[in-house]
Specification:
By secondary structure, the protein is α/β, with parallel strands linked by helices. It contains twelve helices and 21 strands. It folds into two domains: about 160 residues, Beta Barrel (Lyase, Ornithine Decarboxylase, Chain A, domain 1); about 170 residues, TIM Barrel (Alpha-Beta Barrel), CATH 3.20.20. The structure holds pyridoxal-5'-phosphate.
Length: about 425
């Protein structure tokens, strides 16, 4: 469910015509819907009603301060994977007590920062990381509350690049070494085991592998408790799929929640969830302007002013995004286009052989479902400025990241003395 639809023939985000934003801010531009973000946060929270549950929004999906503050107001915590994300979450008003720190390669400085902030939990991915965290914590006189991220050896996820729970992936402690990690925690100062963590992938459109992974995790919780570890929490990660096409039919959050209710039944656990895409994905679009059509011998290229540096998902994951004209077109003649950006890379393609109403230079298009893993993955490749981001709330909107000018783009660079 999202709040992007045609009204009087013009594509709107809530009560604002996307054309209005494009006129003022220029293109390309990301536009996010507050109502959609809030709705998704509420649907998920509602599905877990009555359970002890922390919804730690995965900041890496979309870490804009305006987005984070919107979700903070809904009571979301945060799942962060770097010191920078931790600071973003704090700056947006998310309390440290609702922040968990995931990620395979935390630095000592990041660990120190998180300890000083007093975060809820560290998710630890290796015995080596555990030893470093224990040392950092002990040196600051603190105790880190930890969960070991286990690798349940279950395959899931919408694309090999976003599957993380199979043995052979770099993520998590191998299943048969998990109990040893907890034994290690019990032996050393500075760390205290409070939970078990798992995250098997992203864009998972079937609950079956999730259930399989979570059942394994609950078995481990029982074993660990028998061995005397005080396991109070499970962190079940993120990963729920969203519809990118009208024919996609991902499981509803209620099915997911009911499955989790079943597998955690009777264990008295606090459940932590790290949803990212399912909250932000369909809450954003990338608005781009067609530059011109370049007819080719085999196909017509529709050149647009957004590039893979602005939205990487098609290049990185061969991802599909629906693309809609901002001005509604009557059903009728279609043209077949490859919709491509201006970057000097062949992977700079948003759609191949896509049937669209005839498009001309100057027409604007919305690349749908771009709210997660969109702006966060953008770069200044080809010396293109970072795309601005706009947040809509009802009939108002605000630029929540402006487009840098050229001087700002090069502000961090300098020419060494010997060249001047
Ligand atoms: C990426 C990630 C998430 C969020 O995944 P989504 O598919 O966006 O819900 C949650 N937890 C961890 C550890 C991640 O790496």
């Amino acid at each position: 469910m999202h709040h992007f639809d045609y009204r009087n023939g013009r594509l709107h985000c809530e009560d604002v015509a996307l054309d209005t934003i494009a006129d003022e801010v220029g293109t390309p531009v990301y536009v996010y819907s507050s109502a959609t973000l809030r709705r998704h946060a509420r649907v998920i929270a509602g599905a877990f009603d009555g359970m002890s549950c922390l919804i730690a929004y995965s900041v890496k999906a979309n870490g804009n301060l305006g987005v984070l503050r919107t979700l903070a107001e809904e009571g979301c915590g945060a799942d962060v994977v770097s010191g920078g994300e931790l600071m973003r979450a704090r700056r947006a008003g998310i309390p440290a007590s609702r922040i968990v720190f995931s990620g395979v390669g935390k630095t000592r400085a990041e660990m120190r920062l998180a300890l000083e902030e007093g975060i809820h939990q560290f998710n630890i991915e290796s015995a080596a990381e555990l030893a470093v965290l224990a040392e950092v914590a002990a040196s600051t006189g603190k105790t880190a509350k930890v969960a070991v991220r286990v690798n349940p050896d279950v395959a899931a996820g919408g694309h090999p690049n976003i599957s993380t729970g199979k043995s052979g992936d770099k993520f998590g402690v191998p299943w048969n070494e998990a109990r040893k990690a907890y034994a290690q925690i019990a032996e050393i100062d500075g760390v205290e085991a409070v939970g078990v963590d798992v995250h098997i992938g992203s864009q998972i459109d079937d609950i079956t592998p999730m259930r399989a992974a979570f059942e394994k995790v609950m078995g481990l919780v029982r074993e660990l408790r028998q061995e005397g570890h005080d396991i109070q929490r499970v962190d079940l990660g993120g990963g729920l799929a969203i519809p990118y096409k009208s024919t996609d039919n991902p499981p509803p959050p209620s099915d997911y929640a009911n499955m989790i209710r079943e597998v955690t039944e009777g264990l008295g656990l606090e459940v932590i969830l790290e949803p990212g895409r399912v909250i932000a994905g369909n809450a954003g679009v990338l608005v781009t302007e067609a530059l011109f059509v370049k007819p080719g011998p085999a196909r017509n290229f529709l050149m647009v002013d957004a590039g893979m540096n602005d939205l990487m998902r098609p290049a990185l994951y061969q991802a599909h995004h629906d693309i809609l004209p901002l001005r509604e077109r009557p059903a009728g003649d279609k043209m077949r286009y490859d919709i491509v950006g201006p970057i000097c890379e062949s992977t700079d393609k948003f759609a191949a052989e896509r049937d669209m109403p005839p498009i001309e230079g100057g027409d604007r298009l919305a690349i749908m479902s771009a709210g997660a893993y969109g702006a966060v993955l953008s770069s200044q490749y080809n010396a293109r400025p970072l795309v601005p981001e706009v947040l809509v709330d009802g009939d108002r909107y605000a630029v929540i990241r402006r487009r840098p000018d050229f001087e700002e783009m090069i502000a961090l660079e300098s020419i060494p003395d010997w060249l001047s």
